[in-house]
TrEMBL record:
The chain crosses the membrane at residues 36-55, 87-113, 134-156, 189-207, 214-231, 303-321. This is ABC transporter permease. The keyword ATP-binding does not apply. Keywords: Membrane, Transmembrane, Transmembrane helix.
Length: 329
């Protein structure tokens, strides 16, 4: 009898221990239902569009290509089928690229800044929730939703990219190094989204007001994206090709090209108004590029940088919270 009593008495304890975590997660989501609906709608529409593009959308485009004169003509017109397909496969990676900017602005303004400005956060700290648990929930719950959405859309982007390989080879529809395509087809979309969440949280804790935190979250996210995108070609060694009589052929992302003089000097064409830089001692030409095989090295190196910066911002957020609460976090 006593053993039964002990076991039955322990069950409610486990339920009560699990309940605060669920309640805290609900408390995080409740004030942000509009943002949750927006994110869910974005993922649903993007995912549905990409599934259509990977199936009947692509099939219709390929049929239109086979029935057209694209293989013999310089200009390829595949009609409405390709226009609809191109709209979907262009918008989906673009949405993944823009999403971190929106996440950074939302995290700064609504997730943290507004609650500190209105005193809602301080009220929560006076209840059973410690400041550290409050901030951990503010980071963990949105992060779980963000990762699940971005990973799903990235995988569907990859599916479409795999299916349309024949079309790209036939008419050159998209390049792997295009800004939105590069971001939406790998690990970067998720990494930038988590970075934006961390930037917004730090901005909210620093500024403690919604509108300035919104601007700071947006600007901080945009700054890193612009800097890394502008220097992406430096993140991995380039492949170089040379030719003696004419400009060498390259594949993929062109980084730089130029001429080689008789003295062995290498001059970039970007510094000249003419192709041969107006020199009579040109003995060869060179070109530096990133071929398609560099997609994953470039992707993973940039992702590593973004993740490293995010990993620094998270403990910085807890440090700021401890300073604000006088070490009570």
């Amino acid at each position: 009898m006593s053993a039964v009593t002990v076991v039955s008495a322990g069950t409610p304890d486990r339920r009560r221990a699990a309940h605060p975590a669920r309640a805290l997660a609900r408390a995080v989501l409740r004030p942000h239902q509009s943002a949750l609906w927006f994110w869910g709608l974005l993922v649903a529409l993007g995912g549905g569009g990409l599934l259509w593009a990977a199936g009947p959308g692509y099939d219709a485009v390929w049929d239109a290509y086979l029935k057209s004169n694209c293989r013999e003509a310089d200009y390829c017109d595949m009609g409405p089928a390709y226009q609809h397909y191109d709209l979907v496969v262009g918008l989906a990676p673009a949405a993944l690229t823009v999403a971190p900017l929106l996440i950074g602005a939302w995290a700064g303004a609504s997730l943290i800044g507004r609650e500190l400005e209105s005193g809602t956060a301080k009220l929560a700290w006076t209840q059973s929730v410690t400041p550290a648990r409050w901030l951990a929930a503010k980071l963990a719950v949105p992060a779980a939703l963000i990762v699940s959405g971005t990973v799903l859309l990235t995988l569907l982007n990859r599916l479409v990219w795999w299916r349309e390989e024949r079309l790209r080879q036939a008419v050159g529809t998209r390049d792997w190094f295009d800004f939105t395509t590069f971001t939406g087809n790998g690990t970067l979309a998720t990494a930038y989204a988590l970075f934006a969440l961390a930037v917004g949280v730090v901005a909210g804790l620093l500024l403690r007001r919604s509108l300035p935190s919104l601007a700071a979250g947006f600007a901080g996210t945009a700054a890193l994206m612009v800097v890394l995108q502008g220097n992406r070609h430096h993140l991995w060694p380039v492949a170089e090709t040379r030719a003696a009589a004419s400009e060498p052929q390259w594949t993929g992302m062109l980084v730089d090209r130029g001429v080689i003089t008789a003295s062995g000097d290498r001059i970039s064409n970007s510094l000249c108004a003419e192709f041969d830089c107006g020199r009579s001692d040109v003995v060869g030409y060179w070109a530096q590029s990133h071929p398609a095989s560099h997609f994953w090295p470039l992707q993973l190196v940039e992702t590593g940088i973004v993740v490293a910066v995010t990993a620094l911002l998270v403990p910085a957020a807890f440090h700021l919270l401890r300073r604000r609460t006088g070490g009570a976090a």
